[in-house]
Amino acid sequence: MSKLYNLGCSFAYGNCVPEKNKLCDTHISPGTLIAKHLGYEEVNLACNGNSLDGVLRRLYTWPFEKDGIILIGIPPAGRFQVVHQRQQHTTKERNSKSKLFGRNTEAEECIKYAYTKGPQTVFPDFFYSIKWAGENIKHMDINETASYLLNFNLVKIQARLKELGLKYYLYNSIGFNYKPTNPETILLQKQVDLSSYYEPENDMFSLVKSDEKYQLADGDLHPNHLAYEVWAKGFIEWLNGKQ
């Protein structure tokens, strides 16, 4: 069976939350739903907290099969990766970040265990993401820097995808609507190929914020399965229109 390679951060990785504040034993990602529609086998290479350079690294290190399809949920630009002494585990438990901590046990359980039943990548992964935007860099323009890193990495990701010769689709575009003023960033943005980019003017986070029923849990704005289903329906309609 041909494979659909699913790359990105936590939004792409998926979870075990069918509806807000509820857990189940079934892990679903955007790649799961798109692979099912196409009749492909999903290979989930996404990782919680992943970065743009983390996606690019995986495009250079994974043994992709030539008849596969690559689906990439673009991570936020404000992260970069470092090599850690300990191995990264995508199925780890998380601490509750809910403001209702101690008052909503269902939400706490959901946040803690939402990612514990998903796939673990085959390759040992020692890369961890760090948020550069929190650094106090004198005179840094955060918005312009984020736009530069987003567009520069998009150009590099698409160049690598073309080298691989595989069909690919991109989605999620946090920060893409920002209009840079730096002339080199503007030139980079013009080089991003939008022909295989699903709704570049939009992102899945906007869907989650549009209605609390799409949230993973109280205090956690990750998408649940309902949000993935709504998103996948729109993606499939767009995909059918391209064929």
Write the layout of secondary structure elements.
Layout: E1 3-8, H1 10-13, H2 30-38, E2 41-44, H3 52-61, E3 69-73, E4 79-83, H4 105-113, E5 127-131, H5 142-164, E6 167-171, H6 183-190, H7 204-210, E7 215-217, E8 220-223, H8 225-242
Parallel strand pairs: 1-2, 1-3, 3-6
Antiparallel strand pairs: 4-5, 7-8
Short description:
It contains eight helices and eight strands, in the order E-H-H-E-H-E-E-H-E-H-E-H-H-E-E-H. With 243 residues, the chain is of the alpha/beta class.
Provide a descriptive summary of the structure in words.
The chain is α/β, with parallel strands linked by helices and 243 residues long. It is built from 8 helices and 8 strands. It has helices spanning 10-13, 30-38, 52-61, 105-113, 142-164, 183-190, 204-210, 225-242, and strands at residues 3-8, 41-44, 69-73, 79-83, 127-131, 167-171, 215-217, 220-223. The strands form 3 sheets. A 4-stranded parallel β-sheet has the order 2-1-3-6, sandwiched between helices. A hairpin with a 2-residue loop joins strand 7 (215-217) and strand 8. Helix 2 (30-38) packs across helix 8 (225-242) and helix 5 (142-164) runs parallel beside helix 6 (183-190). The longest helix is centred in the middle third of the chain and has 23 residues, at 142-164. It is globular and about 50 Å long. The two termini are 21 Å apart. The mean pLDDT is 90.
Give a quick set of tags describing it.
single chain, 243 residues, alpha/beta, four-stranded parallel β-sheet, two-stranded antiparallel sheet, 8 helices, 36% helix
What does the main sheet amount to? 4 strands, parallel
User: What is the radius of gyration computed over CA atoms, rounded to a whole number of angstroms?
Assistant: 18 Å
Mean pLDDT: 90
Taken as a percent bin, the fraction of beta residues is 15-25%
Helix count, DSSP H or I runs of 4 or more residues: 8
Estimate the global geometry from the Cα principal axes.
globular
* CA(first)-CA(last) distance: 21 Å
Quickly give the structural class: alpha/beta
Number of strands: 8
Helix content: 25-40%
